[in-house]
């Protein structure tokens, strides 16, 4: 059972490892260590565990915050599926979303991304018959890039001296792809701007438009969904619900409402954590899964952060864009309302993705650069028995943190009238986008609530309301400090920032962190 820090908890003083944060990376690291018999304490500041995999419930509905679809879990032998099975003792179950996983909408044209590489390729060629060789070359490039990825991430788990001798050879092939922008790579294959717009339409999955994002990130997302999308049966909270017992089996604990204030470092070694209420917990291994900005800017003193070069390291990376999500509750089941399982991606007609983002960042009354619509209750086969006669929709767009900065010091739900008015006007615009696509829903909306970048900051502790941790620029991929082992003995990192955004990226970060700590080849152990 996940316990609350505010209650009396039987803490023991001999945890083998303490993990800060309970996101996918943290939970994976904790589960892998627990499977090796280690007693792990996971400390989460929010009142719900899971980081972006948590759900919230309000007025008879439940919404998933940071999971809309996950790829590569239908095949029992895929690395991601094997990892999920391993850390959840095979208790996490998945529902396939069907043949179409993403529908791209640009004006009156729609483009479906369909399951299966051959199907995907043929579908795209049917939309762009003159571009068949560019499409084939593009798909090959996506595979080539992903092939080089494995060694790049394995290098992050290597001991420092091996990495300093041979690291370059592990990294160099992937760096060839990651150092180029998505646009640079794709425009070398085709000059058809509409095709480029369609091929890069999933940029919302990593938050940066094609002229800014690294091709490596683009390729990893695209390939991730080639075999379709899936959704956790029972909702995304099932991720924590199924991993927590694995941690408890080794006498570990996941505790919520437990905010870590500082990592205690003595004689160049991490030895424990100081909690917000002044309590201290000690362990030889401290793992931070709360993002590199939080770890190096907040949990470590300024003096040490300068001494170890962390302040300088952080100058080379940037927080990702922030977002707003309109959480909608509707009267009627997904079937009654004919809600699709696939996601909708809606884009402006006249501008390319980069110009659309720029126009919008310059003036938030401009057209939304992207609107993403997901139908979680249609994806989860357990939904109807849990919430009969109801359904949910999430509508997401980019919202710059700067537009919300003036309410920074205010508290959740009490940010004042001007904040509520701004949120209401954004909500109305997003609702209209939904009704353009599905006009019959106009009379079915029971309630809605918009999250803002301040909501993300409040609940998941990303200081600029970051949607995806660090920006996925070419520069990010060349940063050697984004690895599990830090220069401080006993202190490790995990989570999306050391691999990449996405539940799959965070899951894999847990694997390389546990490998770096124990020296155990978890990849071999799990994938065999
Ligand atoms: C709107 C949205 C939609 C998404 N959709 C998808 C999707 O469909 N598919 C997909 O694969 N990925 C998706 N993602 C991305 C994915 O959810 C994340 O990349 C991933 O879950 C991040 O995991 P993480 O391990 O880095 O930890 P996070 O989820 O970032 O969790 C970090 C945790 O640390 C806690 N914490 C912070 N500071 C402290 C402290 N001082 N003390 C204690 N605890 C602390 C936070 O409260 C938080 O719980 C989405 C993300 C968002 C925001």
Characterization of the model:
The chain is α/β, with parallel strands linked by helices and 528 residues long. The protein has three domains: 3-63 and 74-90 and 233-316 and 479-527, FAD/NAD(P)-binding domain; 115-227, no CATH class; 319-460, no CATH class. Helix content is 39%, strand content 19%. It is built from 20 helices and 21 strands. It has a seven-stranded mixed beta sheet with strand order 9-8-17-18-19-16-20. β4 and β5 (61-64) form a beta hairpin. The two termini are 31 Å apart. The site of flavin-adenine dinucleotide has 39 residues, from α1, β16 and α19. Residues 20-26, 43-46, 51-53, 66-70, 259-260, 289-290, 294, 323, 325, 396, 460-461, 467-469, 495-496, 501-504, 506 line the site of flavin-adenine dinucleotide.
Write the layout of secondary structure elements.
Elements: E1 3-4, E2 17-20, H1 24-35, E3 40-43, E4 55-58, E5 61-64, E6 70-71, H2 79-87, E7 94-96, E8 100-106, E9 109-114, H3 117-127, H4 132-157, H5 160-178, H6 182-187, H7 193-199, H8 215-224, E10 229-232, H9 237-249, E11 253-256, E12 260-266, E13 269-275, E14 280-282, E15 286-288, H10 292-298, H11 302-307, H12 310-315, E16 323-331, E17 343-347, H13 353-362, E18 371-374, H14 376-379, H15 383-386, E19 390-398, H16 417-437, E20 445-451, H17 453-460, H18 474-477, E21 491-493, H19 503-518, H20 522-527
Parallel strand pairs: 1-11, 2-3, 2-15, 3-11, 8-17, 15-21
Antiparallel strand pairs: 4-5, 6-10, 7-10, 8-9, 12-13, 13-14, 16-19, 16-20, 17-18, 18-19
């Amino acid at each position: 059972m996940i316990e609350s820090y505010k209650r009396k908890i039987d803490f023991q003083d001999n945890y083998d490892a303490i993990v800060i944060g309970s996101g996918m990376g943290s939970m994976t690291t904790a589960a892998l260590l627990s499977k090796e018999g280690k007693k792990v304490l996971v400390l989460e500041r929010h009142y719900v565990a899971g980081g972006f995999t948590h759900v919230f419930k309000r007025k008879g509905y439940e919404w998933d915050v940071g999971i809309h679809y996950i790829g590569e879990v239908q095949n029992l032998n895929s690395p991601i599926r094997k990892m999920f099975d391993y850390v959840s003792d095979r208790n996490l179950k998945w529902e396939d979303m069907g043949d179409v996983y993403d529908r791209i909408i640009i004006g009156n044209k729609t483009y479906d991304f369909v399951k299966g590489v051959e199907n995907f390729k043929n579908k795209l060629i049917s939309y762009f018959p003159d571009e068949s060789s560019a499409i084939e070359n593009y798909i090959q490039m996506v595979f080539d890039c992903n092939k080089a990825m494995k060694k790049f991430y394995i290098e992050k788990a290597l001991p420092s001296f091996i990495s300093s001798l041979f690291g370059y050879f592990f990294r160099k092939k992937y760096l060839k792809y990651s150092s180029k922008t998505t646009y640079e790579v794709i425009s070398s294959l085709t000059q058809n701007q509409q095709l480029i717009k369609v091929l890069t339409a999933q940029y919302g999955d990593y938050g940066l438009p094609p002229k800014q994002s690294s091709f490596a990130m683009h390729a990893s997302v695209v390939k991730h969904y080639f075999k379709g999308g899936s959704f956790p049966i029972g909702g995304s909270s099932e991720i924590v619900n199924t991993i927590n017992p694995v941690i408890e089996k080794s006498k570990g604990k996941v505790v919520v409402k437990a905010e870590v204030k500082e990592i205690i470092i003595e004689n160049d070694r991490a030895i424990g954590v100081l909690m917000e209420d002044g309590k201290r917990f000690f362990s030889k291994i401290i793992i931070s899964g709360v993002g590199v900005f939080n770890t190096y800017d907040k949990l470590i003193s300024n003096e040490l952060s300068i001494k170890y070069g962390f302040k300088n390291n952080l100058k080379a990376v940037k927080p990702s864009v922030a977002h707003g999500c309109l959480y909608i509750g509707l009267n009627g089941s997904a079937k009654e309302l004919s809600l699709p399982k696939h996601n909708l991606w809606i884009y402006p007609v006249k501008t390319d993705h980069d110009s659309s983002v720029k126009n919008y960042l310059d003036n938030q009354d401009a057209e939304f650069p992207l609107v993403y619509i997901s139908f979680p209750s249609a994806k989860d086969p357990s939904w109807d028995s849990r919430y009969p006669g109801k359904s949910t929709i999430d509508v997401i767009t980019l919202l710059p943190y700067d537009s919300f900065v003036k309410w920074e010091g205010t508290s959740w739900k009490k940010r004042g009238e001007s904040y509520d008015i701004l949120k209401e006007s954004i909500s109305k615009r997003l609702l209209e986008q939904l009704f353009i696509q599905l006009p019959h829903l106009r009379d079915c909306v029971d309630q809605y609530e918009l999250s803002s970048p301040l909501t993300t900051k409040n609940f998941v502790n990303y200081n600029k309301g970051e949607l995806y941790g660090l920006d996925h620029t070419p520069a990010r991929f060349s940063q050697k400090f984004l690895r599990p082992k830090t220069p401080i003995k006993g202190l490790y990192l995990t989570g999306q920032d050391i691999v990449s955004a996405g539940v799959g990226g965070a899951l894999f970060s847990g694997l390389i962190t546990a490998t770096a700590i124990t020296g155990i080849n978890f990849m071999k152990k799990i994938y065999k």
